[in-house]
Every structure is written in C-alpha cells, then in structure tokens.
Write a structure and sequence with these properties.
The protein has 5 helices and 4 strands, in the order αββααβαβα. By secondary structure, the chain is α+β, with helices and mostly antiparallel strands.
Length: about 140
C-alpha cells in the first residue's frame, strides 16, 4: 500500500467535487507507477457505470492495450461498490486500497435507490450461436 497514491486518489475526488461532479477518484498503479486515473463522471455523462474505479481500469486497459492488469492495484478515494470490485477483478486486479468507508459517506442523492432486481434465464433456440461463431474465428 502506497499512502501517496491513496492521497492522490482523494485529491482526484476533491477536484471532481469542485467541478460539480460526484466526489470519487481512483487510480491504477503497478510497482508504484500510475498507469491511469479516473473520476466519477456518472452525472456528466448520464452513465451509471462511470464510477471512478471503472474509469481508471478502462483507461489503464486502453493505455496498455490489454484486458490483463494482473500485478496492478487500484487506489480509490472511497470503498468500492460491487460493480467496481467486479470490474477490477475481471481485469486481474487483486486489491483495491480505499480511503473513505462507505458508512462514512453522507447521502449524496445518488445513486438511484435500489429496486427489486432479478436476472432470469429463458431457454432460447440458438442462444449459444454467438459463442460458437466467436470460437470458430
């Protein structure tokens, strides 16, 4: 854990708040080198997935030309939500260091309150065809 990198994530969040955006910032680093940064742009972009950690991981993958960020770490201004944890994990990141705990965040009026949600499988002819086509090249 690098305290300077964690402070940098907090600074990104503070600058984002000063710009009228949600106060979240993050960066991806490997061996002490910052690979990319991200801030929450959900309000500006009307994008519920535009969390700081997600943006930082996207930027790092794009900059490096890979989906594999193994060996990198995320430094976040705030405890990551399940989506941010999942994106980091999908990129091979094993740890997210964070500054503020979720329970310490005041009500920001965002995100939209949770609703009952389910994902339901429906048996569908040809459902595996896209995968077969991909593997066929």
């Amino acid at each position: 854990m690098d305290a300077k990198l964690l402070s940098q994530a907090v600074d990104l969040a503070t600058a984002n708040a000063a710009a009228g955006q949600l106060p979240f910032g993050a960066l991806v680093a490997r061996d002490g080198e910052v690979l990319a940064t991200g801030v929450n742009t959900a309000l500006r972009d009307n994008d519920p997935a535009a969390h700081a950690e997600v943006e930082a991981v996207r930027a790092a993958c794009k900059a490096l030309g890979t989906l594999d960020l193994r060996g990198a770490e995320v430094y976040s201004s705030c405890e990551p939500c399940p989506m941010c944890r999942t994106v980091a994990s999908a990129a091979g990141i094993a740890v997210i260091w964070y500054a503020a705990r979720a329970r310490d965040i005041p009500e920001l009026g965002y995100p939209v309150p949770p609703v009952d949600f389910s994902a339901q499988w429906v048996e569908t002819d040809g459902a595996t065809a896209p995968f077969d086509r991909y593997l066929a090249g």
